[in-house]
Amino acid sequence: MSGFSFSVLATDGAARHGAVTTARGVIRTPAFMPVGTAATVKAMLPETVRALGSDIILGNTYHLMIRPGAERIARLGGLHRFANWPHPILTDSGGFQVMSLAKLRKVTEEGVTFQSHLDGARHELTPERAVEIQTLLGSDIQMQLDECIALPAEEPEIERAMRLSLRWAERAKAAFGAPPDRALFAIVQGGDRAHLRRASADALTAMDFPGYAIGGLAVGEPQAVMLEMVEATNAVLPAEKPRYLMGVGTPADIIEAVWRGVDMFDCVIPTRAGRHGLAYTRAGKVNLRNAVHADDPRPLDPESDCPASRDYSRAYLHHLVKSGETLASMLLTWNNLAFYQCMMADIRAAIAAGTLGTLRAELLAIWAGKPR
After folding, report:
1. Which residues contact 343 (CB under 8 A, 6 or more apart)?
2. Residue 243 and residue 232: Cα distance in Å, rounded?
3. Out of 3.40.50.300, 3.90.25.10, 3.10.690.10, 3.20.20.105, which CATH number does the structure's domain 5-267 have?
């Protein structure tokens, strides 16, 4: 298998079920990508992540360039070998982490200089360097460097960052070239202004990238605003290219974005929640820290294929969480990723069957409730 392509296999309204083909395998869409921040999905074995149905994982350029270093990973055979994950990997550009984690940062036309949040060491990230780092890592899908600003913000600042990101996209595309086995995605910016989103999407579409991401959302704005921006952007983006909503999200966010035509997602929610005692199930969220679970012999989901969901009592999981045991993080992360991948499989099947509206109503009803 070689090259990169995207095909739509079925539609249901604006929703699409398709396949992204890469040199290292096919990504079934809509797809959820577990976040492997530092070359690992926290508390999980790579083979377990794969067995749950994950076709692709995400690696963070910012974290990997700081530690252990992109050049070191390249010398060791690339990120796939380093992490024992021979399947597709998407790497972000590092821009979001620079804006949110760096101790000090300065954005110029050339790029961004910043101090590491680990040791204060000075680094520089330009559109060209971001491509170079991701090429050293060997990821299958790479992202352009962009400037992601916090919301709310004034429109002149939003437009300035959006225009800068467009110029960086041109430079990233020139630096990336045309490798046969990898793809570079552009990132639509524009904050919470629909006309700026459309302008960004128009300009990036004219540059003809193989895929497009919607960035700068899920940063504190209301869900309704996020979905409005998704609709405005997808109305402009080409239907024959994959669409990736970055950093999203909750089950309700995902089903609503799929309903509006998004194909790919990533988010730390299922893994982070697992490390903090929160389980995602087909009946809703379960907070294992709550005392109500201390004497509950039931598993999280007796009908699940996942051992973490099926074979351990809520009482035991509650005990592990309250005791601070590492096994609590392992089992709850396993459960959460199993839920997310089962949800994505259900979504793909519903699109193919033309029943996504029914599934959407069911999921939204479940996720409107509070954790038990």
Report:
1. 32, 251, 254, 363
2. 13
3. 3.20.20.105
What is the structure's pLDDT at 1?
42
pLDDT tens digit string along 149-172? 889 999 999 999 999 999 999 999
Whether residue 278 contacts residue 288, with contact meaning beta carbons closer than 8 Å, is answered with yes
Query: What DSSP string describes 218-271?
Result: SSSS-HHHHHHHHHHHHTTS-TTS-EEETT---HHHHHHHHHTT--EEEESHHH
Q: At what angle do helices 194-207 and 223-234 cross, to 10 degrees?
A: 40
What Rg, from alpha-carbon coordinates, does the chain have?
A: 20
Q: Is 2 left (phi over 0), alpha (psi -120 to 50) or beta?
A: beta
Strand order in the sheet with 25-29: 5-12, 15-22, 25-29
pLDDT tens track for 230-274: 999 999 999 999 999 999 999 999 999 999 999 999 999 999 999
Mean of the per-residue pLDDT values of the chain: 96
Task: Return d(Cα 89, Cα 264) in angstroms, integer.
Answer: 13
**One-character DSSP codes across 163-197:** HHHHHHHHHHHHHH---TT-EEEEEE--TT-HHHH
Each residue of 280-314: pLDDT tens digit?
999 999 999 999 999 999 999 999 999 999 999 99
Positions annotated as catalytic residues are 92, 266
User: Quick one: which of 274, 224, 215, 214 has its CA closest to 252?
Assistant: 224
Report domain extents, the chain.
5-267, 274-362
Per-residue CA distances from 169 to 133, 243, 306, 369 (Å)? 16, 16, 41, 41
For residue 96, the model assigns a pLDDT of 86
Q: What's the pLDDT score for residue 2? A: 61
pLDDT tens track for 31-88: 999 999 999 999 999 999 999 999 999 999 999 999 999 999 999 999 999 999 999 9
DSSP string, 281-334: ETTEEEETTSGGGTT---BS-TT-S-HHHHSSBHHHHHHHHHHT-HHHHHHHHH
What residues form DSSP beta bridges with 36? 59
Q: 202: pLDDT confidence band, cut at 50, 70 and 90?
A: very high
